Amino acid sequence: MDKFIIDGPSPLRGTLPISGSKNAALPLMAAAILGDSPTTISLVPKLKDIYTFNNVIRVTGTTVQFDEEANTLTIDPGNLGFAEAPYDLVRKMRASFYMLGALLGRAGEAKVSLPGGCAWGPRPVDLHLKGMEAMGADIRLEKGYVLGSFPNETVPGGEYTLSPSSVGATVNLILAAVRRTEHFVIRNAAKEPDVVLLCKALSAMGAHISGAGSDTITIQKANRLSGISISNDPDRIETGTFMIAAAMHPESSLTLTGTQPAHLGNFPETLKKTGADVSIADDSITVKAPSEIKPVPVETEIYPGFPTDLQAQWATLMTQATGDSAVTDTIYFDRFSYVPELKRLGARLALEKNTVQIQGGNGLSGTSVMSTDLRASVSLVMAAMIAEGRSEVLRVYHLDRGYEDLEHKLNRVGAAITRADD
Predict the structure, then answer these.
(1) Dihedral Cα 270, 273, 275, 280, nearest 10 deg
(2) Catalytic residue at 118?
(3) What is the CATH class of 2-19+234-421?
(4) Residues 144-162: pLDDT tens digits?
(5) Is 165 helix (H, G, I), strand (E, B) or coil?
(6) What is the predicted pLDDT for the residue at 92?
(7) pTM of the model
(8) 130 three-class SS
């Protein structure tokens, strides 16, 4: 396993391009197998999860070609003939479960392993399965697999209310419904840009979808979908992560290019409350760190509220604030594996249920820390970049799942990060 060796503290100065979004690309990849001709997706990041999902799709007989230099992915489902996603691949990432909806929509049947992924939080697939049953699919579990099928080429459909709202379930239900249901309504649907982009792509392919970006999405059957060329969205979580990193050192000033500021919801305004100077111009965002970081408590919310995928990074920022604050995760109650690792660096944190209390204003000192999941891992890298001395962040394979060329990007703007064999 690789590790990062990080020397700090290091201010960040310069310009960074934002990579394509993993969370938006994966639904687009699943949607591509619903078409009757090839689909080409641009701005696809080179990440472990992308490579894993490429292999999941290839199992079906679909041809997948990834031009890494151009960050372009072409998916041709013309030879799709095997409606299964096996355990040895699906266990590596939860988003592989999108194959259930995609294969049900394309082939009318599917056999998909129950998913794996980050080792935190029970994220059950009950919503996915109950929603598919509501639209008319037959669903059963057998030896760790979900077996799904539609009784006929077309089913009447119906409606299903997601409680709670879920991006993954919204995506899976859309994929299953667009070619099979006469009329299906998803209530309390996720509003995230990832869902909106998926609906945009499917509509361009010929699907009949209304309400994307609202809490009610309505789908009517399309008899045929054609492949398209479409650009992926830039990664809003990478954008937010780098914005927070720029605010942590008083000498930092960082410009992020190729962004979509409108996709950040309320986050820029929240960051401004810390005293950071946040300037937005078209597709670029510049963050200048404050001389003193003001404490700002946050609670995660569904989009456009504060993202759960930024709460670990925010807690790390708050360790450097001039007073005390708190971070509460209302989406996933146990997404706090970073807390004991930050404490090893010298942070003063107290965790109770789904809230971490943060005592700000203390310096951090370099030491060895252990990554446990994707966002926790990047929070430890950020902490190490402002800690005095040398730190080691172990098991950085988590980072390779969701941040493209992370150490190279950060090194170009002033960080001192070396990847080494652990």
Answers:
(1) 40
(2) yes
(3) alpha beta
(4) 899 999 999 999 999 999 9
(5) coil
(6) 80
(7) 0.95
(8) helix
